[in-house]
Task: structure prediction
Amino acid sequence: MSEPLYQLVYYSRNKVSGQDDALEAQVDSILEASRRNNQAVGLTGALMFNSGCFAQVLEGPLDAIEATFERIQRDERHGDVSLLALDPIATRAFPNWAMGFVGHSTKNAKRFEQVGVRSGFDPQRLGAQKVHAILRDLTLDEEGLAERV
Amino acid sequence: MSVLSCLSTAVSSSALQEVILDGLLHPVLVLNSDAEVIYGNASAAACFGPYLIGSDLNALFPACPDAIACLHARRTTFEVISETAGRFSVFASVSSDGDSILSLIPVVSDVRSIVETDELTGLIKRNGLRGFLEQAFAPKGGEGGLVAVHFLDLDRFKVVNDTLGHTIGDQLLKKVAERLLSVCRKQDCVARLGGDEFVIVQSGVTDLADAERLAARLVDLVGRTYVLSGHAVNIGVSVGIAMAERNQAPRDLLRNGDLALYEAKRAGRGRFRVFEPGMYAALRLRRELEVDLRRALALRQFDLHYQPFLDLETNRIIGYEALIRWEHPTRGCVSPADFIPLAEETGLINKIGEWVMRTACATAMSWSEDMTVAVNVSPIQFKADGLVQTVLSALAFSGLSPHRLEIEITEGAFLEDTPNVLKTLHALRDLGVKISMDDFGTGYSSLSYLQKFPFDKIKIDQSFIQASAGGDGEAILKAIASLGLSLGMAITAEGVETAEQLARIRGENCTHVQGYYTGRPQPADRISTTIETEAAGD
Result:
């Protein structure tokens, strides 16, 4: 019998927002680090981002989830991390690692299109569970706040 | 020829040779060709324990597997680290028969390695911290920057321990320690003083802003959610900062940090405060006041004065509010605004409140039978469980009829544990006691309090009565008064000082009035004469 699966959902204000180049550099580094770290410990999930925030669903063994979340908490680039859910799950909603831009900004949608394609990010999956849909809506709200600044 | 017999030859008395070796402050070891200890002086025994003889270098210094190699390579100096005794510079020489003679000189600059560490978090402990501070203060060549001490106390740690258990509590402490280490630099020192108290010594600080930046980061970082064994855990941290001054004793620096921490907690926790010289004086004054306050009751320094309130319809005094006075032999008259908060903080308010209740009830018995006595009750007294019993016993002891007692509470009573407060209020009401809401309009002024409990009376804070005519204050007064009217509650206007104010509140649905204009607070023995005078004037 394999280890029980958990799901952790959080979102955080993006402290690096403001400059497009900084966001792009950050997205690249996160994608690279996620690929490298998560696969080894059995984590999958989805990460949404825009100029306002990061929102993430992490799925996998509890130990790996806790260690990853702790790493995120210690990362100065994340501000106001809100933990939305931490629950045992029967099956993974995101069996692969995926990351993509979620937002209204057409400029950024174009800019980050390849990130979504490369990682197999499917925004449609976000409607499947209520907490994921909430997460998507929060992400959109945060983009709106950040773009107005 | 062994090294020891060499020594014996050189020094005529073997006793003297022992005295010399044991008199050395640093460990001296003699090892055979298998790197096993065949001799250790007294200092060595103190550092490495009584079972020294026969141990090999690996057993003594497990963290330094290549010590034996150094020995075999005939290296004359190398370093070793002992888990219990710290780091040493080793000076090695070899005797003619192949025994190695090692002088172990402690490396004092690396305090961390020779102090005890906390088993749970791996951080250094209190005595190690003191050593580190002394080190940090030692005169150095060149400018080493300033030193800041951060005193940390976790907020709500006890709740986590109590609700989720010690295992989770320990996991949390470990994560906190890791987070603290993650924001500190190598030259900084992080210590756990036990429980949920931590100290960080930040060195190489350029200015106060530098220290404040770290403190703000600590407050943010420690306050972020933890996930522990599937539980989401939230705590906070309060931080006190003290900047080290030249020639300051570590003990004073730690005391200053602790004082600043105390201020951070008093300001509402989850924040940092920087030590200021005034804090020590302020705390000392508070302590002295507390000492005096603790004995004031026994020394009978409290007295009650009584301020009349009038029924605006009949223009007659219908009762008195009991107001506490503290006459201190050297301080003089201490204002309740100065000692009541301290009494609440220390819990002394419960005993003082009990005395007020008994005294006021007893005094009211000397008044005519239609007079009410109003007594203020602190929110702290509601928390203490014994309030209903206190009132019952004061009534029984004095013989006062419950309907002549009016209890005044403030909104503060509702801020915590509202269901319990409501239960107490209903129990008091069931005794026949009246309940009024005091100082209405100054706090949260939540209308939901008025809905939660059917108060007999609302007392409108004096700031609205003393506000200028036609202004916002008057509009608020008008609104509260008509609200009271529609809820069937009496309305007392407090702080009426002039005829003009009295005339104004008459027009605003207020039912009662209290203030300097209609009567100042006065001692109990002058109340009865007031009543007589007033009766005579009718």
User: Anything to note?
Assistant: The longest helix of chain B spans residues 277-296.
